[in-house]
Write a structure and sequence with these properties.
The chain has 268 residues and is mainly alpha-helical. The protein is 51% helix and 9% strand. It has helices at 2-40, 132-150, 161-182, 194-230, 236-242, 247-256, 261-264; strands at 61-73, 78-88. It has a two-stranded antiparallel sheet with strand order 1-2. The longest helix has 39 residues, at 2-40. The chain is rod-shaped, with a radius of gyration of 46 Å.
Length: 268
């Protein structure tokens, strides 16, 4: 029991000495550090930029260290970046003059040794570029195929109205959904882009192919009305013999029988 009490007494006697030594070291370090900073910042005004001796502009060196690059939003043209941004310039007002130092040595903690080394910096430049393959497969190729498909109506008989109208409407709606639907995922800019011009051009070709059938159909109706007007005064058999090569005229007179072309002018 006596040995245990003696050990506890010795421990309590040595520990305050160690604490006081560490506290004295920290107090001395803080005192000299404060004195050093007060001496350096004595003539420095942070509101004024540093000036050189010859009056030349201040040279500021800037470097950026990128740690990571987050998700990129093409629609909002934004991206996240985690980096170190550092600026470095020379301010002679902060130069330390040894004449002001009353102590030749400044004690530092041992952990500061690992922070003193010759720094080697690796600079990396990132060049962001869109992948062309995505836009070729998702936009350019489908739009081109839709335009080519709309041209198929040129080889369909002009009398096949359901087929030509259905094909034209389908290509126009598909072009609107595909071209302008995918455009919403791209950045919203105030100027037109090459993709906008291409989509509008494809839409124009598809729409013109639809209008082409309407123009031909109207021209055919005008032609039939003119032929009916020219055949007035002839009997039905003569008209059929003269224009036997025109299927529309033949069908027209077969529809009205022997009543004559004068009766058919009501539909003109």
């Amino acid at each position: 029991m006596f040995m245990i009490l003696l050990f506890i007494n010795a421990f309590t006697t040595i520990r305050p000495a160690q604490v006081n030594k560490k506290t004295t070291y920290n107090t001395t370090l803080i005192r000299y550090t404060t004195k050093l900073l007060d001496t350096i910042l004595l003539n420095q005004d942070k509101k004024l930029r540093p000036q050189s001796d010859d009056g030349s502009p201040l040279v500021v060196e800037i470097d950026i260290l990128i740690r990571s690059m987050g998700p990129i939003s093409e629609q909002n043209m934004e991206f996240s970046l985690d980096c170190y941004f550092r600026q470095k310039w020379l301010d002679k007002r902060l130069a330390f003059n040894q004449a002001y130092s009353s102590k030749p040595e400044i004690p530092l903690a041992s952990k500061m040794l690992k922070d003193i080394w010759d720094l080697s910096v690796l600079k990396v430049y990132f060049k962001l570029q869109r992948q062309q393959g995505y836009y070729v497969l998702q936009i350019y190729t489908p739009c081109t195929l839709l335009v080519v498909m709309s041209w198929v109506s040129f080889w369909i008989n002009k009398e096949a109205s359901p087929a030509r109208v259905a094909l034209g409407i389908m290509t126009v709606l598909s072009m609107s959904t595909l071209g302008f639907g995918l455009r919403t995922d791209l950045p919203k800019v105030s100027h037109h882009t090459a993709l906008d011009i291409y989509i509008l051009s494809c839409f124009g070709f598809v729409f013109c192919a639809m209008i082409e059938y309407a123009v031909i159909n109207y021209a055919q109706i005008v032609y039939i009305r003119k032929q009916i007007h020219d055949l007035q005064g002839l009997d039905s058999n003569a008209a059929v013999s003269i224009f036997s090569g025109t299927r529309n005229i033949v069908c027209l007179f077969r529809l009205f029988g022997n009543r004559g072309p004068r009766d058919a002018r009501d539909i003109a």
